[in-house]
Amino acid sequence: MAGILVTALMLFLIKKVCEGEPTVGGPDRVVDQHGTNKLVYITSQWALQLVNDSLPFSRANSFCRSQFASLLTLNESENHEDLLELLRQTGTRSSVWVGQSSKPAAPSKQYLQISALSFPKESHEGFARVNISFPALSAISMCVRVQWDRDWNDVSTIFSYAAPVFTNEFQLRGQLDVQGRVLLALIIHGKHLPYKASFPNDGAWHHICVTWRRSGNHWAIYVDGESKDTGSGTDTNRDIHGDGILILGQDQDSFGGNFTEPFFGNITDLNVWTMGLESRHIRALNSCSTLSQDMLFKWSLDRISSHPAVKEVQTSLVCPAAYPQVELQDCRTLQGWTNQLPAWGQTECSNLLPFVCRSTKERYLKMKQMSESQSVRPSAFMNHLMMLSNRTQPILAQLPTDLNNLAQASVLLNISAQALEHTPQGELQPADMVSLIQLLSLTADIPIQPPTPLENSSQDGVLELSQHFVSVADSIICDENRLKWQAIKEVVNGPMDVVKSIDRMVTHLSPHLMSQTDQLTITSPNIKLELQQQKLQEGSKVSSFCGPDTESHAHLDCISVPPQKIQDLHSNGFYKITLVNTWYGSLRPLFNPEENITMVPTVTDGSQRYLGTFLGSSVVSTTVLGDDQPVSMAVNFQLQHRVENSLGTVYDPVCAFWDFDLSPETGGWWNTKGCKVVSRHYGHTVCYCNHTTNFALLLQVYEAQRSPENEKALQVLTFIGCGVSMCGLLFTFILFIAVGVPKSDRTTVHKNLIVALGVAELLLMCSDWASDNRAACFLVTALLHLFFMASFSWMLVEGLLLWSKVVAVNISEDRRMKLYYIIGWGVPVLIVGLTLAVSVDKYKAEDHCWLNVQTDTIWAFVGPVVFVLAVNAVVLCRVVMVTVSSAHRRAKMLSPSSASKMQTFDLTWAVTRPVLILLPVLGLTWLCGVLVHLSVVMAYVFIALNSFQGLYIFLVYAVYNSEVRNAIKRIKEKRKALSFTNCSQPTSFLHSQRVPVSSWSRSPPTPSSPETSETSGANSSTSMSLVIKNESFRKESFVSFSMKQASENQVVQLTGFKPSGC
Length: 1062
Prior knowledge:
This is Adhesion G protein-coupled receptor D2. Its main location: membrane. Belongs to the G-protein coupled receptor 2 family. Adhesion G-protein coupled receptor (ADGR) subfamily. With 1062 residues, the protein is α+β, with helices and mostly antiparallel strands. It folds into five domains: 24-107 and 344-365, Mannose-Binding Protein A, Chain A (Roll); 111-323, Jelly Rolls (Sandwich); 378-516, Serine Threonine Protein Phosphatase 5, Tetratricopeptide repeat (Alpha Horseshoe), CATH 1.25.40; 518-702, Chondroitinase Ac, Chain A, domain 3 (Sandwich); 715-964, Up-down Bundle (Rhopdopsin 7-helix transmembrane proteins). Helices cover 36% and strands 24% of the residues. The chain has 23 helices and 42 strands. The radius of gyration is 46 Å and the shape is elongated.
């Protein structure tokens, strides 16, 4: 019994595991709540989804795009076995749609230079013969471009086809009516059809196509892409005879001769097909596209022989609008398999077939996980959506494939917009965003019927749908969802997918949105959409568009089409244009800041160091629709810089656009082709691009550096300053040792600071020579780090020592010096050691011997330095406050009232002067380093103050130090005494000659020993008096003021030295 239970438990666990992770290579059948039947075959890399709901090719492609997948492409050998296995396991025997393996050919240019034949009125004999062999035809289509002579009113034959057995087999002729229009008529099998199709006799080029099919005897005449006349049921039901002659510009009364009814004007671009063209083909041919399928003759003067009166000329054709060439061809299908190889076919794109979508395995599994989580535990947004739609299942969890009418899409968008309003801000979940992005993608591709007059209610419905569309899109790309965009990056390419859906939606709906108005604006907090329509015959208007107004009312985000470019459209045959302008204000935070935009730096003179490129503005876009078809045009735009200026960095703007074709698998990328900067300003940049799309500013970030000349001058100044500083430090150290300066904690601290600073500056001078050797440079970097840290540590000790002289600190001198040594040498060794242990690979900079400022390693130096400077600044402020306030009080007590102001000023300066001289010793001049990047002048000031720091110390501690000078004086007097007398007690003699710098009373000073130069024996007094000699008062003037005694037998020196002459 126990064994049965264990077995059952194991089977249950295996079942759960298999349900949780689809088996590689196994089919996974999914049927959603809308009845969409999808069979998924998962491989090690891909997920192939067979959708059994039959759709036209365009809708199949749209559905795959909404699933963040693509229609399975053609000729991908790695997919053949997977696709075969999927179709075999699912038992699919019908054809399925497949996509193109390469990008469809780009639409033809709108300006086409082409050779033409000119038939002048001077000769009625002109003709041209097309030298091709005609088979018997059950269908035929002929297209030609003609430029009618405006002064010719009689019947003219554009082309005539005569067969040996029947002369008037197929012919197109025209004549002018009383209203000045050219009427066209066909002759088929000798039957003359009525003059009905027409075009204005305006001297312009017109595109004429005629088609005929034996099936039903259907015929049609198209002018400039539009059907003008059509019919069926002629009397004779037979093929067009073969082996005939095709003549341009003349009617053949006999086979190949007896020409009558000549044509006057120009003819070009004659093409013949052995099939009946459809309306979609002819509209595309009118736009200068080509169709090679079943083509019998393609326009070429090499295959035409003409009469001498007919001249060859070059002409410029204006194509009304771009038209995708893929619409001209039948769409590709997979019909089956032959010997394990795919059998490809073609069929009408409007046919209904199943199809296969392909996505990555990771993307499919992530989407499946999100869908299942919504089904089990709907989010707050989905709960609101179900409540508003009276559903019990998440309505957007699985969108139907047959979302093909505006009414259904409008309802979904409406309740989605209402649910978003009821959902608290920030509670929209990643799965909700994915579902909404899918809904936008499907809605944007809903097919729209050709423009026809609509009822007012229908117009209102289209406008309402557009408003809901923009509202939902705004909620998705708002700044509050930037973290959620990172959560769905495995599924959605990025926020530009939403932008692309908006572009498609507006392009499809613009004919209906603008049918009753010339301007329409839809706004939301983060999106502004505006449509402007102009009739070009009324003259071009200003086409500028700006984003929402700002508080400063200046430097808006604006875009415009140059008026001359719009006027050129009118000159080229366009009747109206529609400008679709959009502003997106919240896209910049949604791009991952860690994903640096790869771009070549624009600054290459070495004056700045390139750090990276990022999006630095809003996004604006313009789409120009000429006669409801996209037209690419040049635009000007200006965008504000949306970036906070950081200290030490500069930004160089680059004009760019989002290219959806640059990296299709990731949704596109930024491109700069065709764009340039017109002018740069402090807060905005003006750009020009020679095409229309979505534009933005990319800001290239550079580390502020100096010109090579300034850099060289600063290096020379640093080298000279360090050399002078080292000499000053060396002389100071020698004097301290040689002349016998009295020993004390103060002099000990001075010596350690001199050693640390001197070694650091010596290493700094040698660092350039070590940069060529990687190991030596690394060692120099570590030693520089150590000794500069030691220098600042001893500067900190100088501050602590000064503080101890101002504030009573009950620590013995021995214990205090041990603490000072730990701070001065122990802490730097610890910091450097920990830094090397943690980040040895990122320790050194790439191009010089110093810490890497591009990583956090630099904080191992900057952090302690900032701490030292902060502490010493506090110490200095405290010392200044104590000394100045004490001096003021004493000056008021001793100075006459009439001279109090003058004496107070002099006394304040006399007390403050030695404290200010302490700035280099305390390291506070390094505060100038914070301002170095603001100006090159600050760099010179910083180097001057710190490179000559050793010279300052030499002047303060040696040249103007009374202890050093007294020690030198004692040596001189000793030598003088030894030279003139043989004294038995030179030490007592020298002691009797010592004059202390300061005393604690107005009585004559008491002697002090060299070992206790900071103390005196004034034990009988409970107060202290600091005696300062002020040379500016009078020759011999002493001032005294009281201070609280730090300890019973200790005299406090406020400054770290004894000024000479005090």
